[in-house]
Amino acid sequence: MKLKQKDIKKSLKYSVLDGVNDAAKNGITDNYKIPFALALGASNEMVGLLSSLPDLFGIIVQAFSKKIIKKFGSKKAACNINLMISRLFWIPMILIPFLFQNGVWWFLLFLCIQGIFTQIANTAWFSWIADIVPQKIRGTYFGKRNMISNVAAFFATLWAGWFLGIMNNFYGFAIIFAVSMIFGFLSSYYLNKMVDTPIKAHPKVTFSFKHFIHGINHHSNYSNFVLFKTLMAFAIQLASPFWIVYVLRDMNIGYEWYAISLAVYFVVDTLSQRYWGRMTDRFGDRKIMFVCALLVPFGALIMLFINSIPMLMIERVLSAFVFAGFNIASFNYLLNVSPSDDSPTFIANYRFFAGIGSSMGPIVGGVLATFLVTSPFFTLSALQTLFLIAFALRMTIAIGMINRVHSIGKGKYLKFRNVFIKTVVFYPMLSIKHDMNYIIHSISKAEDKFKKGLIH
Question: 98 Cβ partners below 8 Å, 6+ apart?
Answer without folding.
Answer: 170
